[in-house]
Amino acid sequence: RILAQFKSEDGALVGTPFDLPVDVRHESLLVLCNTLLENEEDTPYEFYVHDVEVQDSLSDVIEAVKQKVESEKLLEIMYRPQALFRVKAVTRCSSSMPGHSESVISVQFSPDGRYLASGSGDTTVRFWDLTTETPQYTCTSHKHWILCLAWSPDGRKLASGCKKGQICIWDPVTGHQLGRTLTGHKQWITWLTWQPLHNDPECRLLASSSKDTTVRIWDTISYTSLVFSGHTHSVTCVKWGGEGLIYTSSQDRTIKVWRANDGVLCRSLEGHGHWVNTMALNTDFVLRTGAHDLENGTVTRGLTLQELQKKALERYQAAKGTYPEILVSGSDDFTLFLWQPSESKKHLARMTGHQQLINDVSFSPDGRFIASASFDKSVKLWDGRTGKFIASLRGHVSAVYQISWSSDSRLLCSGSSDSTLKLWDIKNRKLLYDLPGHSDEVFAVDWSVDGERVASGGRDRVLKIWRR
Which position among 52, 91, 122, 139 has the lowest Cβ density within 10 Å, counted as fewest Cβ atoms? Predict the structure, then answer.
């Protein structure tokens, strides 16, 4: 027998130490933990001893970490709540939707999963009807390739940026442009992001980064903009955090942290030895979905702006927990860095292992994992708190361009230049399904927030919808 005690992810101990048989099974630990936490409904948990998961019985784990466990000492069992709902894996292509006359460069579902938008090299933005899986609206105001899209967190507006440096805002219900085109950038737009819903319930403010080395904050109602200029090369990515800070990465090898309300540069994060390509926040998923909470089935239609803001703030605080926001950056120097930009300009971890440049990086919706996609044909998994390497997901035979998580953090989808999508099982760290179908490189992939569909697009100009 062994003396044990449960502790949360934050390190808080639960109840008093208790006596356990060594061969206790996962199901018994589940009952015990729910009882000690006095949960009204049974919550699914994962249990870890010294970072090793208890999958079957406790004795197997103790055997695996024998040198760290002393029978006289208290054994701390860490519990982690899992998502209550399960996303079913997508297994088949339910629709191939032609329409674009050039490569599909970006694909995005709206935060509530009701709309799907795509941007293409044919200078159009298209909205697709998800009930019939057919084209709905074609939006033509841009004069050059559409490089990026961003849905406002309330799901009522879509912003698109093109290679000419112009930004348009669209209404998904009518397919019409809202207001006039936002012009000011001298070169192409690299990234777009909206102010989080809990800071801006009207979704007025939009941030854009550009090859012209600047970042602009646009007021989409009065058409005024605030310019952040501090980078010396192209700005590759901009993220608007929930703590009132804006993070920008650049080909000048730095990441800069700005105060959103007045544009003051707070700090510059240095460490990368080459261009910084991409960034992700551990709160990205809640910032993207705003007040839309699938786990509790919250319906946001009919709520006032204040109610939406309150709901979004609650969700953000629950996702962030007691820690400051964590940022991960991926670079052409083959490494990733983990940062706590609101606290310090020193990195938490330097994550090495990729053998080629890193193209995309993404936190799982629960913030526990980081996935990175690289030109070295692999997807790697890392611990979202410490940056520790977990596993390499190998299967693609060419560069991996984009990755997207399912909203329960149990599955990951990747799109590659080998023309396939692959679905990975995170718990077992292995390939679940291979999804061929595209006839050329897959540039864009997105998993809808409700978990029902995956959308993908690429060089073959066809938008595909995948379902289970």
Answer: 91
Question: What distance separates the 2 farthest-apart alpha carbons in the chain?
Answer: 72
Token pair recorded at residue 303: 């709520």
How confident is the model at residue 319, as a pLDDT?
86
- Local structure of residue 451 (DSSP, 8 states): S
Of 278, 396, 381, 398, give the one whose Cα is nearest residue 332: 278
Q: Which of 281, 273, 140, 283 is nearest to 198 (CA)?
A: 283
Give the chain's residues under pLDDT 50.
none
Cβ atoms within 10 Å, residue 386: 12
Structure tokens at 16: 């008093």
Is 373:361 a contact under the CB 8 Å cutoff?
yes
User: Taking a C-beta distance cutoff of 8 angstroms, is the pair 165, 212 a contact?
Assistant: yes
CA distance 415 to 268: 32
| β-strand pairing of 265-270 with 276-281 | unpaired
In the prediction, which pLDDT does 301 show?
Answer: 67
Number of Cα atoms under 13 Å in the Cβ half of residue 246 = 31
Please give the pLDDT value at position 52. 82
Residue 443 corresponds to which tokens in the numbers above?
A: 């540039």
Whole-number pLDDT of residue 304: 85
Q: Are 405 and 388 in contact (CB under 8 A)?
A: no
Edge-to-edge strand list for the sheet holding 214-219: 189-194, 205-210, 214-219, 225-229
Alpha carbon dihedral 282, 285, 289, 291, in 10-degree steps, equals -50
How far is CA 268 from its chain centroid? 23
pLDDT for 78: 87
Q: How far apart are CA 280 and CA 284, in angstroms?
A: 7
The residue length of the chain stands at: 468
Burial of 222 (0-12, 13-18, 19+ CB in 10 A): exposed
Cα separation, 410 vs 80, whole angstroms: 14
Contact 362, 447 (CB under 8 A): no
User: For strand 265-270 and strand 254-259, is the pairing parallel, antiparallel, or unpaired?
Assistant: antiparallel
CA distances from 397 to 83, 142, 374, 379, 393 (A): 32, 35, 12, 12, 12
Rounded Cα–Cα distance for residues 78 and 61 (Å): 13
The DSSP call for residue 317 is H
pTM above 0.85, yes or no: yes
